[in-house]
């Protein structure tokens, strides 16, 4: 890549492949905190590419706010409607109050009890993929995050398929009308569930969130419903993209699969490399409320800052041979779950799912083969594979 000319972060199709890693490497080396003006956008933003600067931005929630949206192309009216009511677009003190409640069901102790049915869901999905190989393995993999979260939330089994379909539609439908409609239907579903639970207290997950046992914290109905939808959304595509990326890499690197299959590498260790490599959360955005210095750049109040997690995860200052997929990588301090107060609520659950998947593959699959071209979704936000022609062999 030409050393003098800054590469275009908004080149059409950049995120339809993996060429953006070279672009990020250029910025890390030559202009680590750069000013970017996307074509056609009313305002530019500061683009942060080095690991240490990314961490500093994520940790500074006092001067860098999430309430103006946490992604480029955020829809302002939609964000204002949920700001300080939904974790991901909230600042303290509301963020602190809500996170205290929502972190409980995703804590180490509570999830320890969920491990058994995470394993059951994964075993069912892998068994189905072995029994009925589809041209696209994602048709099977997508059931893992949806079925697991529906089980954790105690939703009736008969609703799971509908929830899976609506969640996919709400985030991935090419039609904006269908996306909005599906989101509305999910909100309505949770409103009804919360109302019903007030009468019956039949749903332990919801009852746990509404109980006044979290240091006296009580959530409003809006906060409950927005965050239930946020949890559903947060763990769906992201976890699926990590599962898909790992499978893709293992199919392309049979020697890495052999290390896991042969017991040389612990699936929990390989999970971390799968997370570093897949980067389902490609960028995160904040807006400065006070002057802040990031690297060499002086950020003014009101300006937006974007951290590229995909770049931080390949920073040569932190990772040895960052462009090598190494399932046995140790000291793997990837930032795929973010950092600081907004660090992913579901990181432990996602890790459980991915590790259970690798363990199940190890006990039921001998090899996996790539039977066509995988396809990336092209997004610079929730990035990942949306077509994966891989066949698992028993
Ligand atoms: C591989 C899977 C996942 C990845 C890569 C991922 C990534 C992330 C990242 C980068 C953030 C930080 C956003 C920010 O700083 O603004 C985040 C936050 C969040 N994630 Fe995840 N996530 C994953 C799975 C899940 C799961 C399974 C759940 C559901 C339990 C979930 C729910 C959330 C929620 C609710 C937040 C907001 C937390 C807050 O603002 O305090 N995520 N996730």
SSE blueprint:
Elements: H1 20-30, E1 33-36, E2 45-48, H2 51-59, E3 64-65, H3 76-82, H4 94-102, H5 108-131, H6 138-141, H7 143-152, H8 157-172, H9 176-200, H10 204-210, H11 221-234, H12 237-252, H13 254-261, H14 267-278, E4 283-288, E5 292-294, E6 297-299, E7 304-308, H15 309-312, H16 347-364, E8 367-370, E9 375-376, E10 385-387, E11 390-393
Parallel strand pairs: 2-7
Antiparallel strand pairs: 1-2, 3-4, 4-7, 5-6, 8-11, 9-10
Bound molecules: protoporphyrin IX containing FE.
Low-confidence stretches: none
Radius of gyration over all CA atoms, rounded = 21 Å
The structural domain count equals 1
The hetero molecules present are:
protoporphyrin IX containing FE
- The helix content is 40-55%
Strand segment count: 11
**At the third CATH level, what is the topology name?**
Cytochrome p450
Net shape: globular
Give the quaternary arrangement of the chains. Answer: single chain
What is the CATH class designation? Mainly Alpha
What's the arrangement of strands in the largest beta sheet? 1-2-7-4-3
The biggest beta sheet, please? Answer: 5 strands, mixed
Family: Belongs to the cytochrome P450 family.
GO molecular function, one term: oxidoreductase activity, acting on paired donors, with incorporation or reduction of molecular oxygen
Keywords: Heme, Iron, Metal-binding, Monooxygenase, Oxidoreductase
Protein name: Cytochrome P450
């Amino acid at each position: 890549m030409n050393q003098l000319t800054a590469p275009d972060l908004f080149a059409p199709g950049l995120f339809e492949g993996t060429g953006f890693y070279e672009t990020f490497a250029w910025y890390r080396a030559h202009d680590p905190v750069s000013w970017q003006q996307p074509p056609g956008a009313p305002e530019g933003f500061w683009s942060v590419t080095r690991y240490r600067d990314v961490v500093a931005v994520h940790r500074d929630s006092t001067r860098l706010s999430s309430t103006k949206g946490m992604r480029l192309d955020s829809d302002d009216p939609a964000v204002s409607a949920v700001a300080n009511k939904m974790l991901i677009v909230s600042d303290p003190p509301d963020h602190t109050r809500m996170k205290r409640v929502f972190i409980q069901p995703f804590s180490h102790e509570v999830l320890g009890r969920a491990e058994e049915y995470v394993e059951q869901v994964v075993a069912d999905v892998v068994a189905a993929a072995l029994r009925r190989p589809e041209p696209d393995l994602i048709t099977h993999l997508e059931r893992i995050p949806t079925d697991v979260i529906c089980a954790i939330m105690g939703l009736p089994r008969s609703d799971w398929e509908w929830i899976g379909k609506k969640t996919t539609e709400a985030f991935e439908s090419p039609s904006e009308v269908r996306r909005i409609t599906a989101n509305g239907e999910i909100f309505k579903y949770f409103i009804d569930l919360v109302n019903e639970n007030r009468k019956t207290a039949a749903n332990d997950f919801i009852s746990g969130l509404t109980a006044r046992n979290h240091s006296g914290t009580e959530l409003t109905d809006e906060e409950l419903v927005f965050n239930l939808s946020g949890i559903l959304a947060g763990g769906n595509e992201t976890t699926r993209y990590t599962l898909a990326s790992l499978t893709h890499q293992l199919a392309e690197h049979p020697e890495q699969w052999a290390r896991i299959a042969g017991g040389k590498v612990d699936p929990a260790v390989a999970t971390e490399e799968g997370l570093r490599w897949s980067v389902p959360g490609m960028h995160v955005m904040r807006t400065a409320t006070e002057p802040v210095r990031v690297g060499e750049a002086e950020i003014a109040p009101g300006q937006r800052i974007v951290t590229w997690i995909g770049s931080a995860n390949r920073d040569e200052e932190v990772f040895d041979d960052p462009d090598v997929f190494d399932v046995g990588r140790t000291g793997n301090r990837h930032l795929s779950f973010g950092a600081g107060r907004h660090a992913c609520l579901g990181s432990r659950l996602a890790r459980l799912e991915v590790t259970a998947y690798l363990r199940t593959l190890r006990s039921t699959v001998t090899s996996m083969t790539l039977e066509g071209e995988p396809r990336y979704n092209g997004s610079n936000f929730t990035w990942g594979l949306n077509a994966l022609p891989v066949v698992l062999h028993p």
